[in-house]
């Protein structure tokens, strides 16, 4: 069975699709067969990133690994059982198609609460929640006291993850490994950065996730999207010498992949 990695965050702008593409491509470059699903049927950022990669590989004749993009298949509503949801059916059909030939399936969810996102979370062996390093985005996980910064209660999203975990448990599936990834970290040890870090550590033991380092804010990510390439493909793009920022970004990706601790993955890039 393929290991399913879900990227989930109900707020946009957290670098979710960029993280999904870098995780999927890193796994493909490490020799694993990777399928990709984009459940944001409107914006399709992850899907377009994969399509851009396929186009660049073909146009330049590159010999580089790539995740396989899978679209949700169309389903004849007349074939549905009574009470069966057509979105559930489309997602389960896509996952079933990929499971037989993939080591990993990377699913990017929309930045909003949808039926597809809710079902995908219950499928996640590994759930990655990218989070901008601020209390604005921390609110996705929990509500805090404005004076003391003490955690008052989990958020609606955290409760949704808890529900997904309960569904997995009742189905006899392995427990979900939930990882909150701190993206767009400031380069300096700012006071707010330390506060967010302490709040995340406190909340992690309370609702059950791990904290991992993500990506700093870098121009290179915006430049890579049109080509579909990632930090691991710069040599194929003709970049012979990496500047300090690119080297640091590659190290961030290396640190993230090691923190995910995915089964059968040896991070040696």
From TrEMBL:
Domain of life the protein comes from: Bacteria
SUPFAM superfamilies with a match to the protein in the record: P-loop containing nucleoside triphosphate hydrolases
Gene3D superfamilies assigned: P-loop containing nucleotide triphosphate hydrolases
Entries under InterPro entries matching the protein: DNA_Partitioning_ATPase, MipZ, P-loop_NTPase
Signal peptide: none
Membrane-spanning parts: none
Pfam families: MipZ (PF09140)
Protein name (record): Chromosome partitioning protein
Organism: Roseicyclus mahoneyensis
């Amino acid at each position: 069975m393929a290991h399913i990695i879900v990227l989930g965050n109900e707020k946009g702008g957290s670098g979710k699709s960029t993280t999904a593409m870098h995780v999927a491509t890193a796994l493909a470059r490490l020799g694993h067969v990777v399928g990709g699903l984009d459940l944001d049927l409107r914006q399709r950022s992850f899907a377009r990133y994969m399509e851009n990669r396929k186009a660049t590989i073909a146009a330049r004749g590159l010999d580089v690994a790539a995740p396989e993009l899978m679209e949700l298949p169309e389903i004849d509503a007349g074939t549905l059982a009574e009470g069966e949801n057509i979105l559930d059916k489309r997602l389960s059909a896509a996952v079933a198609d990929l499971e037989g030939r993939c080591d990993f399936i990377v699913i990017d969810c929309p930045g909003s609460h949808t039926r597809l996102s809710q079902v995908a979370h219950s499928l996640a062996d590994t759930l990655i929640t990218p989070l901008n390093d601020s209390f604005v985005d921390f609110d996705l996980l929990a509500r805090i006291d404005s004076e003391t910064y003490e955690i008052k209660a989990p958020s609606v999203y955290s409760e949704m993850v808890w529900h997904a975990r309960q569904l997995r448990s009742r189905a006899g599936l392995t427990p979900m490994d939930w990882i909150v990834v701190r993206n767009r970290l400031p380069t300096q040890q700012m006071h707010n950065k330390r506060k967010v870090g302490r709040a995340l550590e406190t909340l992690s033991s309370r609702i059950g996730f791990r904290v991992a380092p993500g990506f700093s804010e870098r121009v290179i990510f915006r430049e890579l999207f049109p080509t579909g390439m990632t930090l691991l493909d710069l040599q194929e793009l003709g970049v012979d010498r990496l500047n300090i920022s690119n080297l640091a970004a590659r190290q961030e990706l290396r640190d993230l992949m090691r923190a995910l601790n995915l089964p059968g993955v040896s991070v040696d890039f």
